[in-house]
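Suppose you are handed only these lines of text.
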Amino acid sequence: MKDNINRRKFLQNSTLASAGLLLGSMGLFSFTANGNRTLNLQNISYSDRKKRKIGTLEVSAIGLGCMSMAGVYNPRQDKAEMIKVIRKAIENGVDFFDTAEVYGPQYSEEIVGEALKPFRNQVSIASKFGFDFSGNGRNGRNSRPEHIRTAVEGMLKRLQTDTIDLLYLHRMDSGTPIEDIAGTVKDLIKEGKARNFGLSEVNPETIRKANAVQKVAALQSEYSMLERVMEHDIFPLCEELNIAFVPWGPLCRGMLTGRFDENYIPETGFRRAGVPYFTPEALQANLKVTELAKQWAVKKNATPAQIALAWAIAQKPYIVPIPGTTNPNHLMENIGALNVQFSNSELKEIRTSLEAIPTIGFRTKESVFTNL
Ligand SMILES: NC(=O)c1ccc[n+]([C@@H]2O[C@H](COP(=O)([O-])OP(=O)(O)OC[C@H]3O[C@@H](n4cnc5c(N)ncnc54)[C@H](OP(=O)(O)O)[C@@H]3O)[C@@H](O)[C@H]2O)c1
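From them, the structure of the protein bound to NAP can be written out as follows.
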């Protein structure tokens, strides 16, 4: 596995360099005749690369969410530009990419498949099934076994691969028993079409039932400095059953980056409109947490987005956030969060501050017991 990386670009961009790898490890680089360095990824230990485990996978501690590339918080993006963003992520140590059939629909998977094809053996792809489409329309949830099989065949084609490293149920289909869904994924894993099973936004009972049929490798639900409800009944269960936790929305859909002020009005048609924590009243309260991230950014010589991501990673060793971006500069900023570390006393101080800030529009503790 080799990445040819232009030396100057590498030194400008690489978080690996600033993490001390250039000085700290032997045999990381070989040199080509034209002066380029070749980064020998096989010589980098997992701890050097800040890896985390998800079932049978070992992935970068920060992944890349590819949802908005297909237009969710912004218009649908140009494929060639998004391929550049994904490949820039790989050049800079990211090897875990999150998509879903429903994003676009299907367009995000097409982008991810094309971008990752030349790098397939270096990266892990996560995708999700759970909805029914005809043409471009979405016809609600469907995880009946025969539908999962059809969906997965399409996903494999679009992702240009013969296996999906982490195959998630995106949303529970109340018409299909979870045991049947888990059993279908178990068969797909036996057939080599998937490697690990994940769930998204389901309750503890569903997780236990699914896990009894097929080991659950990952749970993907919303989690950030603002939305902390998963800490109550889900994190203990992840620990008990050895399930990795993959936070979506680790930047609270951008709120924690500092890009919005209290006058922000979500654009109609995109997926911040109607979200209860983005109403004017809620924003006024919730931006106090962004202010806290800004204060820590000054202390840590970082940005608020980096504080939010570093905070999430520091909560548990089994957490792998997947911040979503369509912007190469934001991508580099987010990867830079791997260089921000907190001491235990700093984490306690942040926790005390967070608990003192009343927020508006987030989930109640009881809601964890429902499948979303
Ligand atoms: N399982 C589920 O139900 C579920 C639900 C939602 C999302 N997801 C997955 O989780 C991923 C992440 O969640 P998310 O995208 O909803 O929320 P997020 O990562 O918290 O926030 C994404 C938003 O933040 C902005 N952003 C990212 N980095 C930034 C930076 N450094 N500075 C300023 N703005 C920045 C992005 O805009 P730019 O493009 O301009 O950077 C985008 O609008 C998604 O891509 C998707 O793969 C899963």
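What can we learn from it? The first helix runs from residue 7 to 13. The CA atoms of residues 282 and 360 lie 5 Å apart.
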